[in-house]
Amino acid sequence: MARVIFYSKPGCQGGTKQKVLLTAAGHEVIAYNLLTEPWTVERLRSFFGDRPVAEWFNRSSPKIKSGEVVPEKIDAETALQLMLREPLLIRRPLLEIDNRREVGFDVEKIDAWIGLKPADESLREMSENLMNQDLQNCAHGNDGGHKHHNEGGCNHHGQQHQKQGSCSH
């Protein structure tokens, strides 16, 4: 089984599900806080491979949702500088296994890479349930209208956000 270095936002529901799925498959998950990691341009860039710049971004970031940052209009150098200043812009998770680095949690790609089949039959139902969920996107930020976020009623990670746009995932 693989040793997975996993960079995510602490408390993120999607990240928690991703780590559970990896652990159920018998992988060792070493979790780090993506928001406080001392990133360099070179190190951060190494996770994105040949993906288009727009795919490097966390679409649930408040600055993207507000239109302040438009990933499709940003070059690679500018994107990396923005991400170093505002780590919430970085798409999650960042994964490192051996010398390979990836961004995002594409279940099929990760299953082909290191395997996501449950290590124990008792974990099969839970693993199958997780694999059938959208583990690529924010668990509470892709309902289309985001009404609960826009009206300040976003209640997750143990806190209620009061003002518009303060939901910072």
Helix vs. strand class: alpha+beta
> How much β-strand is present in the residues?
5-15%
Low-confidence stretches: 141-169
Task: Summarize the main sheet.
Answer: 4 strands, mixed
Overview of this structure, please?
By secondary structure, the chain is an alpha+beta fold. It has seven helices and six strands. It has helices spanning 13-24, 41-45, 62-65, 76-85, 107-113, 124-131, 147-150; strands spanning 3-8, 28-33, 94-97, 100-103, 155-156, 159-160. The chain has a four-stranded mixed sheet with strand order 2-1-3-4, covered by helices on one side. A hairpin with a 2-residue loop joins strand 3 and strand 4. Helix 1 crosses helix 6 (124-131).
